[in-house]
Amino acid sequence: MTDAHEALRELEERARACTACRLAETRTTVVFGDGSTDARVMFVGEGPGRNEDLQGVPFVGAAGQLLNRLLEEVDLRREDVYIANVVKCRPPGNRDPRPDEIEACKGYLAEQIRLIDPEVVSTLGNFATKLLLKQQMGITRLRGHAYPWWNRTVVPTFHPAAALRGGESVMSQMREDFLLIEGVLSSTTKMEEQEPEQLGLFG
Ligand code: SF4
């Protein structure tokens, strides 16, 4: 096991015992993340839903199946990518995560990104996109473009749950965004290692 894999495992253990915000009181499991720890692309959603909370794995319901389908269309397999959320514990009733919960949890995500070291981070929906890009604009305006971000590329797109609600129009825009991810991956040459102090990236 490499140092990064070991550090990620330790981080997961820390998260599993975390009580840093009120979501610890109502969660069933901590949904830390899932996928390849050597992934070139990492997806960041909002927070676990009911199925994810029960199973401890992100994106396992209908939204997860849709995500898997979009991945297959650009020749990526679920096991090749890494998937995590902005908050690791389910907000009760699937409400939006609150600012203090995001603040309490964002360090885990920052560490996951640093340790997995993906070339592309695709933010799924408004919460992840606003956290990384620090933009007040909504996902509808921000998607469709690739943004340089701390020696990586951020490609924002809709949350798959929005495609389930929004039908073919949202789905076709997501397809465009996944083609953009594919294009970035095929053109990216790995940049220099990120300095640890850049972990203030969400600060
Ligand atoms: Fe800890 Fe994050 Fe869960 Fe809050 S949501 S208890 S900060 S792991």
Major β-sheet, in short? 6 strands, mixed
Poorly predicted regions: 190-200
Our count of helices gives 7
Output the radius of gyration. Answer: 16 Å
- Range of strand content: 5-15%
N-to-C SSE string, H for helix and E for strand: HEEHHEHEHHEEH
Extended strand count:
6
Main sheet: strand order:
1-3-2-4-6-5
What is the CA-CA span between the terminal residues? 30 Å
Structural class: alpha/beta
> What sort of overall outline do the alpha carbons produce when their principal axes are compared?
globular
Describe the structure.
By secondary structure, the protein is an alpha/beta fold. Helices cover 44% and strands 10% of the residues. The protein has 7 helices and 6 strands; from the N terminus they run H-E-E-H-H-E-H-E-H-H-E-E-H. A hairpin with a 2-residue loop joins strand 5 and strand 6 (152-154). The longest helix is centred in the C-terminal third of the chain and has 28 residues, at 160-187. The radius of gyration is 16 Å and the shape is globular. Residues 190-200 have low confidence and may be disordered. Iron/sulfur cluster binds next to helix 4.
